[in-house]
Write a structure and sequence with these properties.
By secondary structure, the protein is mostly helical. It has a single domain, classed as Ferritin, core subunit, four-helix bundle (Ferritin). Helix content is 79%, strand content 0%. The chain contains six helices and no strands. The N and C termini lie far apart (50 Å). The relative contact order is 0.13. The structure holds fe (ii) ion (FE2) (2 copies).
């Protein structure tokens, strides 16, 4: 497989990721309680639509079609965001969970674009590099804006009184069980005595 083929796969993955985000960002915007955070997600949705179009231009340059790969990674990250939206936390603590999920999506995208840019640079695909750099800088700016918007939210969340936890859902129970398995399977030398 030539590097250009690896790049096309990587870009198809990103194209799927961006399309998935076009669907997911309105849910984050609707779910967020904090006005600034809501606005940020709404603004980034518009940027994300532009990124989808920019990626189409990249595929035109490469003479390839943009579809062909589903991004499982982004599906997982978005699923974590959906979990955050289901939490029965109130106000700032609810938003604090969303902030974590949103930052994960941005950093996943940043990693994808950094990898694709390095490949395109190696192949001397200057126009492709330039288009991908534009998407990358929007992702980096989005991550910075989320971090900045999170500051007052986290502060307010820290001041919230602790709430009584309700019973765990079936999904939460399954997740808790899997986390114990993850720990057990990791490595024998990391084994800890159960408390
Ligand atoms: Fe994006
Ligand atoms: Fe993004």
């Amino acid at each position: 497989m030539a590097l250009q083929d690896v790049l096309v796969d990587e870009l198809r993955d990103m194209y799927s990721a961006e399309n998935q985000l076009v669907k997911a960002l309105p849910k984050l915007a609707k779910g967020a309680k904090d006005k600034a955070l809501k606005q940020l997600f709404t603004d980034h949705l518009e940027e994300t639509k532009g990124q989808v179009l920019r990626l189409r231009t990249v595929f035109e340059h490469l003479g390839e079609k943009p579809t062909g790969e589903h991004c499982n990674g982004m599906e997982g990250v978005i699923e974590e965001g959906a979990d955050a939206l289901e939490k029965d936390e109130e106000g700032p603590s609810f938003d604090a969970g969303i902030v974590g999920a949103a930052l994960r999506t941005e950093h996943y995208e940043i990693a994808g674009y950094q990898a694709a840019i390095a490949m395109a640079e190696t192949l001397g695909l200057d126009e492709v590099v330039q288009l991908l750099e534009e998407n990358l800088s929007e992702e980096e700016a989005a991550a910075e804006k989320i971090t900045a918007a999170a500051k007052p939210i986290l502060k307010a969340s820290a001041e919230q009184p602790a709430e009584k936890k309700g019973p765990k859902s079936a999904k939460e129970k399954y997740s808790a069980k899997k986390s114990v398995e993850d720990e057990k399977k990791a490595s024998p030398d990391l084994r800890r005595k159960s408390a």
